Amino acid sequence: MASSMLLDKLKKARRLKDPQFLDMAINECKEAGVGNDEDITKAETQLRVIRLKQKLQRAMQTKNTDAISGIIAEVEGLGFDKPPMYHELIAARNVVERKKRLAALKHDVLTLDRQTMSEMRSYNRPPKVLHEVWKTCRARYAQNGRHGLQMRLMTFDANNVEPEQAARCREILDKYTVLEVQAVSAGAATFYVWARGVIDDVEKKNQGGG
Description:
Layout: H1 3-16, H2 19-32, H3 37-62, H4 65-78, H5 86-110, H6 114-122, H7 128-141, H8 148-154, H9 163-173, H10 178-184, H11 186-206
Helix pairs in contact: 1-2, 2-3, 3-4, 4-5, 5-11, 7-9, 7-11, 9-11, 10-11
């Protein structure tokens, strides 16, 4: 194949951004000794970026934060964290930070001691603030029954919370501050902070912020 045809093929492959076509064009140019080093290097860099973007997209779709974190490190190591992958990395970092933030809030709830949980359940006529916070967490995010709330939280996924559901919970919880809840029950305050964290996360995601 003539040198000019191979170079045209390489240019077309770069324009189309098809990884298989681009890989083939690069290899053909190398084998034929066509093109200068700069052309080949640019094409190889573009191919690597395309493949990294595809790899990151797959990890984002499965929400595999370990895989996402690994790809972020790989991209940063290659110096692609500015253009050409700046925007993709912002989205990827948001996903990782979101999961870390929710995991920390969930951990606080799951590590509440039995005495605190029993205390919240023991009220025959709980203060209104405690009743509404407790009712909101149980009705909106978990099931009833002994240990039901904490057991459900272990597999809780904020991605399954509908925006309308989060809005209703916010309407209830906005009546109180964390200090007001804490004054009644430290345990309820932990649930309150977790629930508000979930609400904020759902609203942010719904607005396209991560």
